[in-house]
């Protein structure tokens, strides 16, 4: 929805809100990520409106950690779901109040725990018993009690790509729901822990509500059991994971239907609800703009070689992910199409954005937009092949700003230090 509205052709040129992409390409150079403020805030409010009023929406910083993006969402009322001390610092730098920050992840270090306790975050989502003990030790030494939910693994298959499934017994996440009562019992006896609730997250890019329903039913049952065991359960963190539509011809999952499912699943539970959406808010709010370097006629196939590579956008290489690709200059309505493999310049066979994609005939120097790239795009970029990752631009109406400048090659090379014995 938001993509069509905020990334649209006007005067035959793709615009992000009111800014022509061609102008940005001239000013910033390619490749670059471009985010729409209006799309971000729209996506946030669509979800917000679909959920109970008092719910905390903690944007999952891993999906897009740019401080300008976090600040945009924070101003609308969003909190943050962080998985490292670094993400915590970014959320704080963006002005998100600590009492709206939740800390997830299987490998929190003592140092990260101290930082989170000292700023007073809303809660730790604890994933194992060793972590519980470590957190209790750190908190007790500070004379504090850490507010804790325990992430339970409901053993539900989210029916998404195997590499982004987290809620089955096979994965490293959470404690098995069958052992949850014992782990809560343990938590209740630790001096530095204050049990506040239950946490669950079953995976990402989930487009069917049924796995959520099944997981939340288990959580609701568990909350009853835990209360009978004497625990004060006042919060349920139901994670993120609702998917988006990556193809122009597929229907995006509906936030309202998700909201209705949540209302049913949590009715009568009397808990504060917390959500950790990442992709749903950021994905359709960003594009990756790139230029065609060459059109190469292979023996069997035609290649569009772009100046963006898998180092800029890992998703196709890592998860066989589909991203729609469109030309920045709007093609004529009946323009003939050709079948291309759309690839990057990185020396890896997997550096490919699309295979057998029908696109209007393209030539060197054409600008292309890789769509739905606002989540798990820039954050996952690397400098592989000594390619400085793409910079990030944010648009707001007619205004635009480079919210992360392009790394210069000098800065990249200066990161490497040469030992004395190689100096002479
Ligand atoms: N909460 C927890 C505990 C998570 O592990 C995740 C995502 C989220 C929330 C946010 O999930 P979302 O609402 O964005 O689906 N790089 C992959 C996605 C990895 C997701 C990891 N965890 C991709 O590009 O598809």
Average pLDDT, rounded to a whole number, is 95
The major beta sheet can be summarized as: 9 strands, mixed
Termini Cα gap: 61 Å
Each distinct ligand: ligand LLP
**Total beta strands:** 21
Shape: globular
Write down the oligomeric state: single chain
List low-confidence stretches: none
Number of helices: 13
Radius of gyration, in angstroms, nearest whole number: 23 Å
Strand residue percentage: 25-35%
**CATH class categorisation of the largest domain:** Alpha Beta
Structural class, from secondary structure content? alpha/beta
CATH structural fold name of the largest domain: TIM Barrel
Assign the CATH superfamily of the largest domain: Alanine racemase
Named at the architecture level, the CATH assignment of the largest domain is Alpha-Beta Barrel
Helix content: 25-40%
Give the number of domains. 2
Protein architecture, described:
Helix 3 packs across helix 4, helix 3 (37-50) runs parallel beside helix 10 and helix 9 (209-228) runs parallel beside helix 10 (255-266). This protein has two domains: 7-35 and 283-414, Lyase, Ornithine Decarboxylase, Chain A, domain 1 (Beta Barrel); 104-277, TIM Barrel (Alpha-Beta Barrel), CATH 3.20.20. 29% of the residues lie in helices and 25% in strands. The strands form three sheets. Strands 4, 14, 15, 16, 17, 18, 19, 20 and 21 form a nine-stranded mixed beta sheet that branches. An eight-stranded parallel β-barrel has the order 5-6-7-8-9-11-12-13, surrounded by four helices. The longest helix is centred in the middle third of the chain and has 20 residues, at 209-228. The chain starts with a helix and ends in a 10-residue tail after the last helix. The chain has 13 helices and 21 strands. Helix 9 (209-228) links the parallel strand 11 (193-199) and strand 12 (235-237). It is of the alpha/beta class. The structure holds ligand LLP.
């Amino acid at each position: 929805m938001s993509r069509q509205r905020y990334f649209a052709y006007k005067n035959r040129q793709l615009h992000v809100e009111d800014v022509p992409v061609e102008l940005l390409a001239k000013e910033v150079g390619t490749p670059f990520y471009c985010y729409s403020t209006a799309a971000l805030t729209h996506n946030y409010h669509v979800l917000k409106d679909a959920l109970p009023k008092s719910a905390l929406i903690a944007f999952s910083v891993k999906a897009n950690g740019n401080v300008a993006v976090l600040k945009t969402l924070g101003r609308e009322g969003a909190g943050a779901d962080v998985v490292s001390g670094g993400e915590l610092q970014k959320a704080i730098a963006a002005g998100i109040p600590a009492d709206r920050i939740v800390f997830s992840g299987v490998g929190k270090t003592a140092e990260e725990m101290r930082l989170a306790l000292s700023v007073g975050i809303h809660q730790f989502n604890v994933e194992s018993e060793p972590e519980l003990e470590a957190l209790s030790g750190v908190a007790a030494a500070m004379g504090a009690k850490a507010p804790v939910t325990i992430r339970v693994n409901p053993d539900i298959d989210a029916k998404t790509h195997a590499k982004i499934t987290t809620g089955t017994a096979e994965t490293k996440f959470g404690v098995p729901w069958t052992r949850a009562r014992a782990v809560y019992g343990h938590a209740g006896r630790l001096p530095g822990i204050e049990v506040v609730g239950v946490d669950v997250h079953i995976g990402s890019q989930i487009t069917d509500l049924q796995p959520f329903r099944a997981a939340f039913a288990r959580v609701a049952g568990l909350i009853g059991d835990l209360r009978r065991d004497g625990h004060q359960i006042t919060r349920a963190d139901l994670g993120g994971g609702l998917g988006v539509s990556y193809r122009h011809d597929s229907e995006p999952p509906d936030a309202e239907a998700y909201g209705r499912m949540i209302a049913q699943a949590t009715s009568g539970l009397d808990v504060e609800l917390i959500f950790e959406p990442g992709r749903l808010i950021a994905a359709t709010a960003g594009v990756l703009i790139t230029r065609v370097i060459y059109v190469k006629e292979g023996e069997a196939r035609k290649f569009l070689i772009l100046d963006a590579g898998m180092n800029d956008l890992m998703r196709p290489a890592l998860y066989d992910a589909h991203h729609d690709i469109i030309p920045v200059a709007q093609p004529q309505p009946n323009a003939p199409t050709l079948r291309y493999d759309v690839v990057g310049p990185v020396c890896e066979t997997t550096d490919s954005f699309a295979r057998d994609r029908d696109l209007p005939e393209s030539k060197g120097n054409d600008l292309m937009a890789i769509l739905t790239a606002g989540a798990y795009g820039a954050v996952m970029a690397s400098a592989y092949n000594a390619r400085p990752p793409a910079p990030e631009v944010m648009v707001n109406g007619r205004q635009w700003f480079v919210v992360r400048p392009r790394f210069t090659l000098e800065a990249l090379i200066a990161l490497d230090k040469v030992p004395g014995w190689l100096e002479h």
